[in-house]
UniProtKB/TrEMBL annotation:
Alphabetical UniProt keywords: Oxidoreductase
Homology family: Belongs to the short-chain dehydrogenases/reductases (SDR) family.
Origin superkingdom: Bacteria
InterPro entries in the cross-refs: NAD(P)-bd_dom_sf, Sc_DH/Rdtase_CS, SDR_fam
Name the record gives this protein: 3alpha(Or 20beta)-hydroxysteroid dehydrogenase
């Protein structure tokens, strides 16, 4: 029996980058997967590629009615929802706080924070109906420490940490586990291509050379951790934070000859 057979998973931002990696891996391990994304062309294309057991649902994570429709469509298509992956997120163009306009601040928090809140709110009753399940919130190492020029994104991901722990306390007695993953610099378009309104990608400012593991992360690295946390092997883990960054937050690793 595959690890995720008889499981139904909804992945937000599931059409590309890390989301698509999670979708493919969960589907390969037997899950029915709902690809929830605002990009209908890519989402429908991925669902068609995967075939049976995959469905695309258009979802604007910042809109409560869109969430209600996505959860209802998930249950209609595959039955009980057992896993939610709050993966959708956007980055702000780099700017000083004093140069960041209110519209940018609001957009980033609407998607990264409010979108996660609305996802938990919409999915919790469905997970309860299923007899329990798991929620994974994809946060960031920028939610662990301050990062200059990215105040909206940093604030949104710090807030996701508190939201994760609060949800874990509220939902634990319903057999629903809630955990957060904090990726570092991962080689996806989110990192390797400029954010809207920016001239340079984040990867230009983060050379992996000083990392203890001197490379950029790959989507498969994050997916491997996600598969563990949503599996029965993690049944006693909730409210936890997992940093997966190759040692980025540890600081520079000195070369042996410098010791």
């Amino acid at each position: 029996m595959s690890r995720f057979e008889k499981q139904t998973v909804l992945v937000t931002g599931g059409a590309g980058g890390q989301g698509a990696s999670h979708v493919r891996a969960l589907h390969a391990e037997g899950a029915d997967v709902v690809i929830a994304d605002i990009d209908a062309e890519r989402g429908a294309g991925l669902a068609a590629e995967l075939g049976d057991g995959a469905r695309f649902v258009r979802l604007d994570v910042s809109r409560e009615e869109s969430w209600a429709a996505a959860v209802a469509e998930t249950e209609k298509a595959f039955g009980a929802l057992t896993i939610l992956v709050n993966n959708a997120g956007v980055q702000n163009p780099p700017a000083l706080i004093e140069s960041t306009d209110r519209a940018t601040w609001t957009r980033i928090l609407d998607i990264n924070l409010t979108g996660t809140f609305l996802g938990i709110k919409a999915a919790a009753p469905a997970l309860r109906r299923a007899g329990g399940g798991s929620i994974i919130n994809i946060a960031s190492t920028m939610g662990i420490g301050g990062t200059a020029f990215y105040a909206p994104y940093v604030a949104s991901k710090w807030a996701v940490r508190g939201l994760t722990q609060t949800a874990a306390l509220e939902l634990g007695r319903d057999n629903i586990r809630v955990n957060a993953i904090h990726p570092g610099v991962v080689a996806t378009p989110f990192i390797t291509e400029p954010a809207a309104g920016s001239d340079a990608p984040i990867a230009d400012f983060y050379s992996p050379e000083p990392f203890a593991v001197p490379r950029l992360g790959q989507p498969a690295d994050i997916t491997a951790l996600l598969l563990f946390l949503t599996s029965p092997q993690a049944a006693f883990i909730t409210g936890a934070e997992y940093v997966i960054d190759g040692g980025l937050l540890l600081g520079p690793a000195l070369r042996k000859e410098a010791a």
